[in-house]
Amino acid sequence: MDATHKSGLREAFGGTPACRLSVAFYARVERDPILRPLFPGKSFTCAIEEFTAFLTQFLGGPSEDSQRRWWLSLRESHARFEIGPKEREAWIAIMVQAFDDVQVEEPMRGELLGFFERASAHIVNRGVAGSVNQDRGSIHHHGAHAEISRRWEAHTLLDEAVTAIRSGDAGRAIALAESPDLQLCGRSVLTGLLSSMVRCGQRTMLDYVNGRLTRDPALTRERYAGRTLLHEAAAAGRLATVELLLSLGADPNAQDGGGHTPLYSVGNECAAGGRQCGSRLGGGRRRRGCPPWRKTVYASSHGCAARQRGGCRGTARSRRQH
Asked: I need a surface site. Which of 201, 226, 234, 259 has the fewest CB within 10 A?
């Protein structure tokens, strides 16, 4: 897709960071008797941000504008909701109204609503999704609109890849990660996929990640959900991957969206391998104004107490809000 088409598709949604479609959609969800109960006691700030990030990434926008997309898999991101045919129909009806609110015109309107028809059927997890409305659901394979279809197909493959990682099917996960179709999702999403493999810890997947990084060292600078691969490898205690990332130039002082470095991940997220990873990352890193940590902090069985005595009280990794 060329830059003109990218810009046109994104502008049809209102662009970023203030995505008009996201705001219009959730303003109506807030008043809807069917969908509002899915969000008990919650504001829609995070939902608007995440939906905006998804649309930005899906339409080929810059990765820095899509870092609030927390979930790789659409199905996983909606699994906590009970979504049946009734909820899907309400979702589609509100989306049509949101398109009216932001005044998306034809033919773009029909093409994009066709995408949402397919996406909404994809996430139904109760009962049968039902058929896709053919008036809205047919995506014509020409120009920029063919790109929407190709990008949606790539995202269904992304869901398959996440499922393969979760089940430990290294062969399938790696084949999908290498597929040209999945590259349409962008390098930020690829980074997220590699991060999932690192967290999985399956040996074949870890070998693949290390090999992929060796072939493409620039991935050390990419981020998914605000975090680098070094954050994820440190958090998971993957010493070999930490060492490789550092040798390839990964920044041990890189901060995630919460202002935390990879060393923070060792201290607050790592269940195994913390002493070795902490040593590799260096004891002289600072965390949010606290005194430098010595390497011996992680060599000690009383590392947590030592950090607290030094004025740094670690906190468990907060669960992401959606």
From this structure: 259
DSSP assignment of 68-133 equals: T---S-HHHHHTTS---HHHHHHHHHHHHHHHHHHTPPTTHHHHHHHHHHHHHHHT--SS------
Which has the minimum average pLDDT: 18-22, 29-33, 91-95, 172-176? 18-22
SS3 311: coil
pLDDT in tens, 98-110: 999 988 778 778 8
Per-residue pLDDT band at 225 (split at 50, 70, 90): confident
Residues in CB range of 238: below 8 A, 6 or more apart: 198, 201, 206, 273, 277
Whether pLDDT at 132 is above 70: no
Long-range contacts of 31-39 (CB under 8 A, 24+ apart): 32/90, 32/94, 34/86, 34/87, 34/90, 35/87, 35/90, 35/91, 35/94, 38/81, 38/82, 38/87
Distance CA 236, CA 265 (A): 8
The answer to whether 170 and 205 are in contact (CB under 8 A) is yes
Q: Are 48 and 5 in contact (CB under 8 A)?
A: no
pTM listed for this prediction: 0.74
Q: For the chain, which domains are there?
A: 7-124 (1.10.490.10)
- Phi, psi at 224, each rounded to 5°: -130, 130
- Residue 263 CA to residue 253 CA, distance in Å, equals 8
* Predicted local distance difference test score (pLDDT) of residue 87: 95
- Answer for the pair 182, 166: CB distance below 8 angstroms, yes or no: no
